[in-house]
Design a protein that fits this description.
The protein is built from 11 helices and 32 strands. It is α+β, with helices and mostly antiparallel strands and about 575 residues long. The chain folds into 3 domains: about 1-50, no CATH class; about 60-390, Peptidase S8/S53 domain (Rossmann fold, 3-Layer(aba) Sandwich), CATH 3.40.50.200; about 420-495, no CATH class. The longest helix is centred in the middle third of the chain and has 18 residues, at about 330-350.
Length: about 575
């Protein structure tokens, strides 16, 4: 069974002999194998918050839900994403799947549109199941992160997982025009797709279309891409796709649970794209979430179903003629984990804005040693912590009230290319207002008010006890640390810029050039110049260092690779090794 403890509670010494897996830090819990004789004393113990029956599990959404804490946000806090609608921009949705009965709308934006919902690739169905599947064909085992959320399905990819930027923009424009019309309540957009970065996010029509939604109060979640390695297994840097490269988009990289329920052995997936972004040199991803070996729904009419039949998974608890699930890996699988978490957060606190949602997710994420911010972002998703903090912000508080801070929280935010620590966010701060670009120095670009995030902790050290009600004079505003590094008490070295992975490490830059290795500062060298406070101008030395191999104007699925292999980054025709 899985036992969760009260905040600050510890497992009684008499029960430690039954703990064979170690602590589940994100939920302050343990997996215990106890005899019946101790059940009554266990349930009566003052340190115990809840006792959950455990079930056998393989690679599935149950494992993701446990390790991220989303399972406990549902069972302990009662949130399922109910009342929140998520737009899934992908390859469509299976015409008939028992796990996906919560679809409110379908529209086909491909070249040969149909009126009836379908998924001739299968990728979109898999993504939708991770986000909001009900788990009916698996006795709940493969339920999504937010099974109570509803889905608006917008098809932009064809049966090969390919599409055009124009179709994606058309889908985004549909959301902008209809998100609050005709009974819709679209608060989240999931984009497990991506296109090559060929221009700045300030002018790219795809990223600007995403920004329009964010300015309307809709959180746009995008997969970082699967360009973390080249074909030889060497690390690649700077392979974040669009629109994930935009600061206003919530960019999700992939982590691996290593097939266990505990978070202690989690790693960043080797295929997950690293920052910084091409052209703008922005720090990405924003965080990472489980995306390796995920079992989710699959469309029997989709090409993936026949191509990857070895990775199909049978139903449990019900007899079906076909296998309703498939195992896939990729940042495409990670993005809906975060989108589902956002739906849980919005059910707990409908007043949350996209900026505050991103800040909460980063602040509550767990930092893992051995990875820099261009690999793990602010850390590994902690869904339970994010929902708890969202709930805390939903009600009024008095000075001295304890904030629900847990020791595993990283308590940091990456505002643009700056790391903010030693503080606590205020939900009323102007940084979280709709229309304020993530990373901006002022509320109106070069004019307007200074950006305020929250309050500083006494002495610059928050500790584990944070209370509400710090004086207004402690507000942290842009310009309080030497005029350019805006941090909660950190030095210049905490800026997240090219080269922070450490001297001497060899980084392959961009998408792919298997024959050449480039050191940072050599063939692919970037000089850093401050532009005001938070922007970096880049100058490339040696234009012939890289060769791009991609098609401009096209988008592709950011996954659809079976487990154990992972799919490469942005192939026009998906390849499965």
């Amino acid at each position: 069974m899985i036992v969760t403890l009260e905040p600050g509670g510890v497992l009684p010494a008499s029960l430690q002999q039954y703990d064979h897996t170690g602590k589940l830090s994100t939920i302050n819990g343990h997996v215990l194998d106890v005899p019946d004789s101790v059940l009554s004393s266990l349930s009566a113990n003052g340190n115990v918050r809840h006792v959950h029956g455990d079930r056998s599990v393989h690679a599935s959404n149950f494992r993701t839900a446990i390790s991220s804490g989303a399972f406990f946000a549902r069972t302990d806090l009662g949130y399922t994403g109910a009342g929140v609608e998520v737009a899934v921009i992908d390859s469509g949705l299976a015409y008939n799947h028992d796990d996906l009965r919560n679809v409110t709308f379908f529209k086909d934006f491909t070249s040969l549109p149909r009126l009836t919902r379908y998924d001739d690739f299968g990728h979109g169905t898999h993504v939708a199941g991770i986000l909001a599947g009900n788990g009916r064909d698996s006795s709940g085992q493969n339920a999504g992160i937010a099974p109570g959320a509803s889905l608006a399905v917008l098809k932009v990819l064809d049966r090969n997982g390919n599409g055009t930027v124009a179709n994606v923009i058309a889908a985004l424009e549909w959301v902008a025009a209809n998100y609050n019309q005709n009974g819709h309540n679209i608060r989240v957009v999931n984009m497990s797709i991506g296109a090559p970065v060929t221009e700045s996010y300030d002018v790219d029509p795809l990223t600007l279309a995403a920004k329009r939604l964010v300015d309307l109060g809709i959180t746009v979640v995008a997969a970082a891409g699967n360009g973390g390695n080249d074909s030889g297994g060497h690390p690649l840097w700077g392979a974040i796709s669009a629109p994930a490269n935009a600061p206003w988009v919530l960019t999700v990289g992939a982590s691996s649970t290593q097939g266990t329920l505990t978070r202690a052995d989690d790693t960043v997936a080797r295929f997950s794209s690293r920052g910084p972004t091409l052209i703008d040199r922005a720090a990405k991803p924003d965080l990472v979430a489980s995306g390796v070996g995920t079992i989710s729904t699959i469309a029997t009419e989709g090409s993936l179903y026949s191509i990857n039949s070895n990775f199909l998974v049978a139903a449990t608890g019900v007899v079906l003629r076909t296998k309703p699930y498939m195992v896939l890996s990729g940042t495409s699988m990670s993005a809906p984990v975060v989108s589902g978490t956002v739906a849980l957060m919005l059910q707990a606190n409908p007043a949350l804005t996209p900026n505050l949602i991103k800040a909460i997710l980063q602040y509550t994420a767990e930092i893992y040693p051995g990875y820099d911010p261009l690999e793990q972002g602010a850390g590994f998703l902690n869904a339970l912590g994010a929902v708890r903090l969202s709930k805390f912000y939903a009600s009024a508080h008095h000075a001295g009230d304890a904030a629900p801070v847990e020791p595993i929280w990283g308590r940091q935010i990456f505002w643009g290319n700056h790391r903010l620590i030693n503080g606590f966010m205020l939900p009323t701060a102007n940084a979280w207002s709709n229309g304020v670009p993530w990373g901006a120095a002022k509320t109106l670009g070069e004019t307007g008010d200074n950006i305020v995030w929250g309050t500083a902790c006494g002495g610059g050290d928050c500790g584990d006890n944070i209370v509400w009600g710090t004086a207004d004079g402690d507000n942290i505003v842009w310009g309080t640390a030497d005029g350019d590094n805006i941090v909660w008490g950190t030095a210049d070295g905490d800026n997240i810029v090219w080269g922070t992975a450490g001297e001497g490490r060899q980084h392959r830059v961009g998408h792919r050039d298997p024959g050449r290795q480039h050191r940072v500062g050599h063939c692919q060298r970037w000089r850093q110049h401050r532009l005001g406070h938070d922007r970096w101008r880049q100058h490339r030395v040696g234009h012939g260092c890289r060769r791009r191999q991609h098609r401009v104007g096209h988008v592709d699925a950011q996954s659809a690779a079976p487990q154990p292999p992972e799919e490469s980054f942005l192939r026009v025709v998906p390849r499965f090794e």
